[in-house]
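#onboarding

Welcome to the new folks! Below is a worked example of what a typical request in this channel looks like: someone posts a single protein sequence, and someone else replies with the predicted structure as tokens. Don't worry about understanding the tokens yet, we'll cover that in week two.

Example request:
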Amino acid sequence: MTGTTTKPGGGGPVTVATERTTNPIASIVRLRELPVTVALVVLVLVTYLANPLFLSAQGVKDLLLNATIMIILAVGQALVIITRNVDLSVGSILGLVAFATGTMFATMPQLPIIAVFAIAMLLGAVLGAINGALVTIAKVPALVITLGTLYIYRGLNNAWAGGTQYFADDRPDAFGNLSVDTVLGFPVITLIAILVVVVVAVYMAGARSGRDLYAIGSDPDAAKLFGIPVGRRVFLAFLANGLLAGLAGVLYASRFNSVGATTGSGMELDVVAAAVVGGVAIFGGSGSVAGAAIGAILLTTITSALTALRVDKFWQQAIVGILILAAIIIDRVASLRTAKKLRMSEARDV
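Example response:
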């Protein structure tokens, strides 16, 4: 339906389009996160029926622990993808930060754990800021820039670590217990991941700079015309992504028994897949960090479920690939349908 309003500062009436009141159920059905949520529930139920131990207390805890690192990485990646960019270096950032965490505990055992978190997240933020600066200043596609920094950061980690590895015995018990202790049944590191999702989701919905990211992803040129500082916003998205990758690197060092030169290798594609499967449009401008988190849970649960069902690892990778293609196709079809409805609505108004 249409209505009239007045131009700011006076002037004649202007016809604007307003949305009809929609059915709450219809609104839920149109949620981008709904398909991946349904897929996750079906996957868990089917696996549980085939193997009841899958949802035992320890089984649920393992599922949460397996998803924790990926959730944090997917949230950061969602910020970047929404701006119509991508960061392929997150696995290398995680690996570099994880090894730095092990180094700090081995060489400075008296350093407070909170200080280790702060230093590691700062390192991740610096690495993310380098990506953001190169993308926004050099005006080179993020795919190319971050593919280069993927190898640069990985090379730095290889040169630094060499054959050195840090194991669980090299870290304080309190740090390792972050992945062991639970609160209301949730591992502490998983609660940290949930907190990250909530904070970033509130920021994206409530802050002007968060909403600007959607505008940039939808149409960067139009965003500039509206006065949005596109370069600054994209830079901050990369910086935030690096900071969250740094946080994931610290938690990785707590979660797993060892960190070394190869830590985080290959994770970048899984992170992008989690965000896309979770409803974050690869073309930018739509999606949510909550959806990216659910996508991360789905992908890690697929691996656990198929392992519990003794399915070959090849099929695990094939299913993830099918999910990525399905998510992109569904998003493209939905975009075309929305554009068609908009054109028809404009034709009726005329």
